[in-house]
Amino acid sequence: MEDIRTFDNVGQDLYVRVDEHELAKYGRKKRDGSLGKEGMVTLVTISICLIIFLVISLVYWFVKYNNQAKRLHKDYLFDGENNSDVTLFDLEDIVGATDNFSDTNMLGKDGFGSVYKGLLKDGLEIAVKRLSKYSRQGIEEFRNEVTLIAKLQHRNLVRILGCCIDGEEKMLIYEYLPNKSLDSFIFDQVKRLQLDWRKRFDIICGVARGILYLHEDSRLRIIHRDLKASNVLLDSTMNPKIADFGMARIFDGDQTEANTNCVVGTYGYMSPEYAMEGIFSIKSDTYSFGVLLLEIVTSRKNSDHYDDVSSTLVGHIWNLWRESRVMEIVDPSLMGETCPKYEVLKCIQIGLLCVQEYVTDRPTMSEVVSMLDNDSTLAPPKQAAFLFKKPKCDDPNLSISEGVNSINEMSTTVVEAR
């Protein structure tokens, strides 16, 4: 036996005699791949680290892909435009604000979706337009409203606060206007009494200024194409704000008119050239404004039935105008000592000028605003367009609003020129 502690020189060879059976046993362990206790611990540790790394990588790539998909979807909806003015709301916040879109919070409904009242955590009241998941046309409506309204700032246009995009959910978030829509007042036998002549005249002027801003004063020339009583909202002071820009179209440069193969909008407010030929221009909005003005003065819908052959409010007023009996159609609640008859007659005449049969005869909105602001002599109106003709549409996914799903009972008539 040797004590190896006595070998202090480095590099010496040391031969150790080992039992043959023990040496053979050691060799078999190596050949069998046995790692021993320490080897097993090392292998398990490496495996756990590898699994953790794979899980973290999968989560990272899933989150990155999901965010990229949402960003691409947003770019698709907005045509890749920079919409820095639009705030993106979380779906969870909107669900909480509307009490999961409860029926008690519903403000209205149409073919493209529903509108709900909401209350954010910071106490801000909002109006949420939730796009219908089954409306293919609604995607274009959504994109229009976001890209257009975000660029518009006027006291007579509804203000958009942001939008929410989450999977199939697409929502627009607006300022909440407590008095809701104009039609809920003028067509209600009780609530219409709250609108005296001064308030109605202010609403008429406010709507006219809002349309003028769209046509001439904003950064874009915009044709609304769906101006009607249910798309005019009222704030706490009854100031009118034009809403719902889903049908709106932008005109480039000096463009004055355009054509579409499928007419979409609301019967009764459409100009004859748009209803029959698909041609729309700023004068199309002028026609719609004229119909709205006459409804405000009379508290009657253009789609209501009238005894004479015209069958619409526009035609009925035109017949009364020719017979010098037009004051008979004015809302009786307005005919008091505080209501200036001359101003009422002036508004009716302006309305008839706006609904004249030929486009070239109708005034622009700048001329309408000037006529409302001044007492200058007005030209006599020419033939009004008021006969029926239902426009055709080859696309089954696009339709004309008929008010079937609306609490506001939208107009269902279409005009045709003589």
UniProtKB/TrEMBL annotation:
Q: Which InterPro entries match?
A: Kinase-like_dom_sf, Prot_kinase_dom, Ser-Thr/Tyr_kinase_cat_dom, Ser/Thr_kinase_AS
Question: By its UniProt entry, which SUPFAM superfamilies does this protein fall under?
Answer: Protein kinase-like (PK-like) (SSF56112)
What would you give as a GO molecular function for this chain, any one? protein serine/threonine kinase activity
Give me the segments passing through the membrane. Answer: 40-63
Q: Which reaction does it catalyse?
A: L-threonyl-[protein] + ATP = O-phospho-L-threonyl-[protein] + ADP + H(+); L-seryl-[protein] + ATP = O-phospho-L-seryl-[protein] + ADP + H(+)
- Listed PANTHER family: G-TYPE LECTIN S-RECEPTOR-LIKE SERINE_THREONINE-PROTEIN KINASE RKS1 (PTHR27002:SF1095), RECEPTOR-LIKE SERINE/THREONINE-PROTEIN KINASE SD1-8 (PTHR27002)
Q: EC annotation?
A: 2.7.11.1
Origin species: Acacia crassicarpa (northern wattle)
Recorded hits in CDD domains, A to Z, give:
STKc_IRAK (cd14066)
Keyword Transferase (UniProt): yes
Tell me which GO cellular component terms the UniProt record holds.
plasma membrane
Q: Which residues form the Protein kinase domain?
A: 101-378
* Record-given protein name: non-specific serine/threonine protein kinase
Q: Which UniProt keywords apply?
A: ATP-binding, Disulfide bond, Glycoprotein, Kinase, Membrane, Nucleotide-binding, Serine/threonine-protein kinase, Signal, Transferase, Transmembrane, Transmembrane helix
